[in-house]
Amino acid sequence: MSTVTRANLVEHIYSRVGLSRHDSSMILESVLEKISSTLEAGESVKLSGFGTFSVRQKGERIGRNPKTGVEVPILPRAVLVFRSSQLLRDQMNGVESHADDVDDADD
C-alpha cells in the first residue's frame, strides 16, 4: 500500500488530461487552496460521490497523561472531519452500486 502524494496527483492529472506537469501542478494547488480556504472560513466542502469535509468545534475538556496519570486541560479547538459518501463506502467494500441509487442527502 502506498501513500498518495501531491506529486502522484500531479502525475495523474498530467497523464490523464495532457497538460504540462507545471499546469497540472497549478490546477492541483488551486483546487487544494480553494478547499483549504473554504474550510478555514468554517464552511463544508462536498465532493459528490467522494464525501464531505467539515470543521467541527471541540470544547475544552480534561485529559489525562497516560504515562503519569496527571490531569491536564485540553483547550478548545477546531478539528477537520471527513464523512465519506455512500458511493465511496460501497466501492471500498466491493459492493456494486449505481449512482442513481445513492442518496447523497446524508453526506
What are the key terms here?
107 residues; 3 helices; 5 strands; extended
Explain this structure.
Heterodimer of an alpha and a beta chain. Keywords: DNA recombination, DNA-binding, Transcription, Transcription regulation, Translation regulation. Belongs to the bacterial histone-like protein family. The chain has 107 residues and is an alpha+beta fold. It has a domain at 1-40: IHF-like DNA-binding proteins (HU Protein, Chain A). The protein contains three helices and five strands; from the N terminus they run ααβββββα. A three-stranded antiparallel beta sheet has the order 1-2-5. Strands 3-4 form a two-stranded antiparallel ribbon. Helix 1 (6-17) packs across helix 2 (21-40). The model has no long low-confidence stretch (mean pLDDT 90).
Give a brief outline of the structure.
The chain has a domain at 1-40: HU Protein, Chain A (Irregular), CATH 4.10.520.10. 36% of the residues lie in helices and 25% in strands. The chain contains three helices and five strands; from the N terminus they run ααβββββα.
